[in-house]
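yo

u said u wanted the structure for the complex thing, so here. seqs first:
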Amino acid sequence: MITVLAGGVGAARLLAGLIQVVDPAELTAVVNTGDDLVLHGLEISPDLDTVTYTLAGAIDPERGWGLAGESWQAMESLRRFGGDAWFNLGDRDLGTHLYRTTRRREGATLSEVTAEITAAWGLGLRLLPVTDDPLQTRVTVETDGEIGFQEYFVQRQHSVAVSAVRFDGAATAAPAAGVLDAIASSGRVVIAPSNPIVSIGPLLAVPGVRDAVVARRDDVVAVSPIVAGAALKGPADRLMTELGHEASVVGVARIYAELAGTLIIDEADAELADAVEAEGVRCVVAPTIMSSPQRSAALARVVLESGVRS
Amino acid sequence: MITVLAGGVGAARLLAGLIQVVDPAELTAVVNTGDDLVLHGLEISPDLDTVTYTLAGAIDPERGWGLAGESWQAMESLRRFGGDAWFNLGDRDLGTHLYRTTRRREGATLSEVTAEITAAWGLGLRLLPVTDDPLQTRVTVETDGEIGFQEYFVQRQHSVAVSAVRFDGAATAAPAAGVLDAIASSGRVVIAPSNPIVSIGPLLAVPGVRDAVVARRDDVVAVSPIVAGAALKGPADRLMTELGHEASVVGVARIYAELAGTLIIDEADAELADAVEAEGVRCVVAPTIMSSPQRSAALARVVLESGVRS
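structre next:
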């Protein structure tokens, strides 16, 4: 069994690699819900949907989010009224949110709805939201004070300086059923190449999760989302710098040192391998840029082969 | 000034006639909200939208509801998950519901949102929901007990026998701002050819509305929704019969006798004019079937010319 701590795009691509090289039934992804939002009355879970759509082969490959072949009639109509259309919701994507919202209002947990949605897409792996309780990543930005994650990430296109990140609700959230057990009982725990602060951070903020990962440190392999000092996508590098971390694989190693026995870094950072190991983390150098399904599968193989206790 | 008590399709067509023959700024429509529902977390106001879309020239002429040139991607996606898709929501139509839901969650009243939506469509008349408070038409059917109006009307295609109709929330609902004043101060009050029980009924159930109409009886003109013993659209005839009324223009005259000094009936019912007048209601015979904009305008002229106090 393999458990992957997952954010959005980077995690989705690594999972797409893993399902090529292991039986999906062996895989559990524990997914960030700190980015979730209620918009226009609809319950939206961006990371869960990105992972689902990617693994279903339905993601839009250009945008990296939402569905391929999407139409945008609802948003165009919303704009007619001057409505808030900064968070783009495609028409087909809306079907997912309509379903999730209805089921939640009927009393289903996010875990239950997620299982129904992944089953409808025919996915073989298990997707677990890290928690079924409210969890909201809140970001303090210079210009506006504390705002929601999507207001920062999408509305302001993560172009404003961040002075603090907080996971509202985390203190009282419980891990979703199966989360702690998956971490405890998997042969391999993987920290996906997601934003350490705002994608993996919320997972670790849910009581019990961090301790469960720490307890498995020797079997935990992290993949650096930072390559040559920059995030492949999103603001991980700037966020790390703004919050006092070094935006490098060494900075990633320091953040994860207590959690992961092994860190996989890209070949572009090979000269930093010793510096990573100086943080007490075994370092594996490999191609980590998942620009094709083949490269995702290759990285998945490295993940599975790395850091096995000898 | 003219005030029209309005349900959905029939009222929308009469209003489309009226705006051809009078300055829309002279017109207020007080619209039924008893059919409103929250579905998938979205606030849906079918009668308000039918009137708006019709007057905007955007209604689908075949279906009689929803927008012309509509696409259905969100519903198709919802069906993938086995979601409740009995209430069809087109993609462009969804934009309206997203906007309304967001604005309501921001604290705007339904009146305010409705004014924004009609302004965005460039409509010149004033559309008022009868109330900004919760009002729900509930229907007791043989098969399932008491259900919501749309469960009866759309989900069961009004094909089950009804034993009772109730307007939940009516007792504590207040008329929306402007409603009572519009009825009191208009030269003409029109009861549109809408279902007397489930379209006009909810309006009259809001405290103060019925009394306001009764006070204007001499200036109130109703248009019969029953032609030759049948409803042109929907279940008005069957509902009237099931609830102990006669499904005829005479039955309509009895329901409205206290409210309307004049009833316009279709030429097909000309032989019932005396029976209508026997109910104490002046009867005007005219073509009432609004199968074209020209016929709507012609009926609007009859409405304006009928029942003027001599």
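Chain A has a mean pLDDT of 96. DSSP finds 13 helices and 14 strands in chain A.
cya
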